[in-house]
Task: structure prediction
Amino acid sequence: MASDLTKQDLIDALRGLATKEDLLRFATKQDLLAIREEMATSFSSVREEMETSFSSVREEMEKNHGEVLQIINTLSSSTDAGFAHMHEVMATKEYVDKRITQSEHAIKDFVDRRASKIEDELSAPLRAVDEKDTALITHLGNKKVIAKPDVAAIVALSPFAAR
Result:
């Protein structure tokens, strides 16, 4: 009866598709022991192949370990150098505050000088007009067109009058 079975029937039975009674009905104990031995040999060769593969992978990793560490060290050094350069060129809060204060002072000085210049430029023509007005008022007062107290009051209204 065991000889009527195909190899696939036995494999299916061993995979759990058959019960123990089915196995005993399909194959003899000797057939099952032979299959077991064949599978043990097959597993053993697969295991050896896997160990060989893992050994070669381990050796390759150990060989590349130093190179990987060297690359990491190079990257680390480059990063440190980049940060060092960044710290050299990076402005601190104190530096920025100092520069802002200096800029504010420079701007205030410029505005003050410019305002003074504009004031001088505007006051010269106004002073000339004021002098003309004062001369006219005084002349009219001398001619008795305007009373002397009125002359004094009008001249006192001048923005450039001595107070």
Q: What stands out?
A: The CA atoms of residues 2 and 27 lie 5 Å apart. Residues 1-90 form one domain. The chain has a mean pLDDT of 81. The chain has two domains: 1-90, 91-163.
